[in-house]
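Teaching assistant's notes for section 4

Start the section by putting this record on the projector. Ask students to predict, before seeing the second block, whether GDT1 family protein will look compact or extended. Collect guesses on the board.
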Amino acid sequence: MDIGFIHAFLASLSVIIVSELGDKTFFIAAIMSMRYSRTTVFMGAILALALMTVLSAFLGYATTIIPRWLTYYVSCALFAVFGIKMLKEAYTMDANEAQEEYEEVQSELRKKEEEVDKQAMVDLEAGISRTPQRRLLFSFVSRVFLQSFTLTFLAEWGDRSQIATIILAARDEVSGVILGGILGHALCTSLAVIGGRCIAQHISIKSVHFIGGVVFLIFALSALFIDPDDH
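Reveal the predicted structure now:
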């Protein structure tokens, strides 16, 4: 198999896992899966993450108009910066960071549900029914699925994993980046919806950041051993 594809796949898979474990999207899936159907929550979240991965990969691929050697070494430098930043965050991070992030996401989701319930009550009291378009939409797609998709997509936008995917696609084979990224997201989201509260509250964000920093640095240093033309 092509070494470029393998490198892109492994890099994307590793980077996504260390970026997404204990991330906001992870907690969204974990909390929603405790209230609603795990399958529905998973499908909404993974569709959003897969779409974001493809969009990010093609954004990175668009930079191929720039000389190959330049994008390759610039991306490696950015990976090194990410790695150092994550190691610094791991060193200064509070041990209860995961619990705080979990409670913050839980609070946000509760507020959104209260807003939806309040709006539904106002509409009911005013005798306002859903528009035909909304009724048609909800006849095909459940509200939970849409909520999982929307919240995950918005939380992922501008996230570390999205930026990392763009950087990887700028230097590595796009197909490998996309497949590795989607698999990484699927594994993390599966853990979130299956483990739910247990994993969300006992995961060590400090350890994940430390491992993540090392992973980012490893792939940054790979530039010293792999020729850009091999990708």
